[in-house]
Structure formats: structure tokens, C-alpha cells
Specification:
By secondary structure, this protein is of the alpha/beta class. Helix content is 28%, strand content 22%. Strands 1, 10, 11, 12, 14, 15, 17 and 18 form an eight-stranded mixed β-sheet that branches. It has a five-stranded parallel β-sheet with strand order 4-3-2-9-8. The longest helix is centred in the middle third of the chain and has 19 residues. The two termini are 20 Å apart. Its EC number is 4.1.1.17.
Length: 371
């Protein structure tokens, strides 16, 4: 994606072969599910083209993501405008571009869809009573299950095609029981819809599939067993399943290559390690220290000690880790290279345009888009 020298720092390197392997592993683990990639996790053209070739669908959150997919050959029929927060003009634009699937969670958004995208297929997002995830959404999205039922009936009555209920267990969900809870609640909505003579085409179980960072996460097979069992136990016959992974497909496919700018011993006695990448140019998920990335240095094997890790800007909030215990070699020096592992998701896509004059994180890819 860039012609800059491959040694530029910082840079994100994406291994396409890993993305492909992740997709195929998920397809094998959830054979009955339609896989809909959450583009926001890594809107990289090569990833879009690879997953399109593999047969994925795409969850898009904006007109920009819709246009990105279309310009790289994706059929609008496999796009779902899954962001429940949409301007009327954006709904109309998406409809003009051929998008025929939409998600919503309020009556206002439903009525905008009816007006500007007549006859499309819709999913209603409800707030499932699942355990908190590592990076939770809170109550920003999703209505009550009862409201989801009411709104889907209203959608049918207003001439839209009902797909079914939709829930999300929260990003980086490490409790597999969350999916069982969500599927059981979705099933209750689905059965009520069937009683109203509304066919439930699909239940969208969202994303949230975790990967291991500094702390291990449940294996995909463990979560898949929970999902497959719950689907068979609770969902009405004929109802398909949609899963919307982002992190699970691209997270472990990326490595950030960065550099140590300097080391400082602060007046409180703590050692600070400053990197040329921080919260504003790729490391946004360190906010609240929810995601604990792993570091690899050229001096691994030397004695280690705790370090506060910070970014390069003059913003006091540009600190990656000061509560999380990060052990780095005591021999680290300015100019040393450092790798940040499993950074393929929500890094470059979160990077600011040019905060403090620092450029956005650039992306390089390796491996083939097609086998």
C-alpha cells in the first residue's frame, strides 16, 4: 500500500496467508454460518480482495467502507450496512450503490430505512444480557429483546424483508457462554416472529471472537462448540446464522514494527520507554489498557524490568501502559527496533490523520491474495 522504504518505522505488516488461514479455520469451525467480515477492523484493499475471493460477506459501517468494497470488486449484494447510527443521506447513498441489507436498533432508524431504502432486508440489534467483554460497547447499541420483536414486526408491516434478530457479545469476548446466552435470547425473539407468520431468515450473532494477546483467550474450537450446540438447541428450523468477525480474522496476521525513541527514569523512580508509535498513530486499543499487546525486542534474553510504555506525542494521554505490568530489557536504548505482535486489527484503521504532525500508520502486506 505504500512505496516507502520497507524499513520505515512505525509500520504495520499484514500476512495475507494468515488471514486466509484464519478465514478457513472459522469456516470449518462454524460450517453453517455465513461469515461477514467487519471491515472496520482492517480496511486494507488486499484483505478485502482476498476475503471476497474466499466467499465472505462484509459488514460495512459507512459510505466510505461501502465504496472501498465496491472499488475492489465486492458485489453490493454481500454488503450489510451494519452500523445502527446512520444519516438519512447515507442510507439513500448506500441504496443507490446497491446495498440491500441494513441493521437498525431504533424506530427512527427503521423509518429512515423505509423511506430511503424501500424493500430491503433488515436485522434488529438487541442488547443481549451477556457477560462483559474485554472492550465492551456498554449500552451504546441495541434495544431490549421485546423492542426488537416489536420493531421487526413493524418492519414487515412497512414493507421490508425481515432477516431476524442481531446481537453482539462485545469486542474480545473471552467467556464462551456469552454466545449461548445471546443465541437463546435471539431464539425467543425468532419464535415470537414465527408466531406472527414472519420467517426468520437468519440470526446474526455478531463478532467478538477473541484472540490471545499477553493473556490467552479461549480457542476457536471451544467457542464454536458452544455456538453450534446453542444453534441446534434453540433456533427455529430453517434459520441461518451470520457471524461478523474482525479481530479473529486479521488480529494475529499483523505485526507493528516500531522503534525506541528514548528511555527516561522519572522522578518517581519508574522507567519510561518511549516508542515512535502511540495511541494516536495505531495503538488506540491500549485505551484503559484493555488490550495488552506483546513486545519483541532485539535485546530479548537480557535482564528485564518493569517499564511504562508511552507514545511519541506531547499529549499526556499518549501512554500505552502504566498499570499493566510490562517487562522490557533493561538494556534497551534509543534506536532499538521493537515489534508489537498481533496488531492486525484496529490499529491502522484507528490511526489519526496527523495528530501532532505524526503521519498515520502505514500498512505493508506480504503473501499472495490468491492461491
Amino acid at each position: 500500500m505504500t512505496d516507502r522504504n520497507v524499513l520505515e518505522s512505525p509500520r504495520l505488516v499484514i500476512e495475507l496467508n494468515r488471514v486466509r488461514a484464519n478465514y478457513r479455520a472459522l469456516r470449518a469451525a462454524l460450517p453453517a454460518a455465513r461469515i461477514r467480515f467487519a471491515v472496520k477492523a482492517s480496511p486494507v484493499p488486499e484483505i478485502i480482495r482476498l476475503l471476497n475471493d474466499e466467499g465472505a460477506e462484509f459488514d460495512v459501517a459507512s459510505i466510505g467502507e461501502i465504496e472501498l468494497c465496491l472499488v475492489h470488486g465486492v458485489d453490493p449484494a454481500v454488503l450489510c450496512y451494519g452500523n445502527p447510527i446512520k444519516k438519512a443521506a447515507d442510507i439513500a447513498r448506500a441504496y443507490a450503490l446497491g446495498v440491500r441489507r441494513y441493521a437498525f436498533d431504533t424506530e427512527d432508524d427503521l423509518l429512515r430505512i423505509v423511506e430511503h431504502a424501500p424493500g430491503v432486508e433488515v436485522e434488529c440489534r438487541f442488547l443481549a444480557s451477556t457477560p462483559a467483554s474485554i472492550t465492551p460497547f456498554g449500552t451504546k447499541f441495541g434495544c431490549t429483546p421485546g423492542e426488537a420483536f416489536r420493531l421487526l414486526v413493524r418492519a414487515r408491516d412497512l414493507g421490508l424483508i425481515v432477516a431476524g434478530p442481531y446481537f453482539h457479545v462485545g469486542s474480545q469476548q473471552t467467556d464462551p457462554t456469552a454466545w449461548r446466552i445471546g443465541i437463546e435470547q435471539a431464539a425467543e425473539i425468532s419464535k415470537a416472529l414465527v408466531d406472527k407468520d414472519i420467517e426468520v431468515r437468519s440470526v446474526n450473532i455478531g463478532g467478538g471472537l477473541p484472540i490471545s494477546y499477553a493473556t490467552a483467550a479461549p480457542e476457536l474450537g471451544e467457542i464454536a462448540t458452544v455456538v453450534n450446540t446453542a444453534v441446534a438447541e434453540f433456533l427455529p428450523a430453517g434459520a441461518g446464522v451470520v457471524v461478523e468477525p474482525g479481530r479473529a480474522l486479521v488480529g494475529n496476521a499483523g505485526t507493528i514494527h516500531a522503534e525506541v525513541i528514548g528511555i527516561r527514569n522519572a522522578p518517581d523512580g519508574r522507567r519510561w520507554v518511549y516508542l515512535d508509535i502511540g495511541r494516536y498513530n495505531g495503538m488506540a486499543e491500549t485505551e484503559n489498557e484493555y488490550i495488552a499487546y506483546r513486545f519483541v525486542t532485539e535485546r530479548d534474553g537480557d535482564p528485564v524490568d518493569e517499564a511504562v510504555v508511552a507514545g511519541p506525542t506531547c499529549d499526556g494521554d499518549d501512554v500505552l501502559y502504566q498499570r499493566t505490568k510490562v517487562l522490557l530489557p533493561t538494556s534497551l536504548r534509543a534506536g532499538d527496533r521493537i515489534q508489537i505482535l498481533d496488531t492486525g486489527a484496529y490499529t491502522a484503521s484507528y490511526s489519526s490523520v496527523s495528530f501532532n504532525g505524526f503521519p498515520p500508520l502505514t500498512v505493508h502486506v506480504s503473501g499472495a491474495e490468491r492461491e
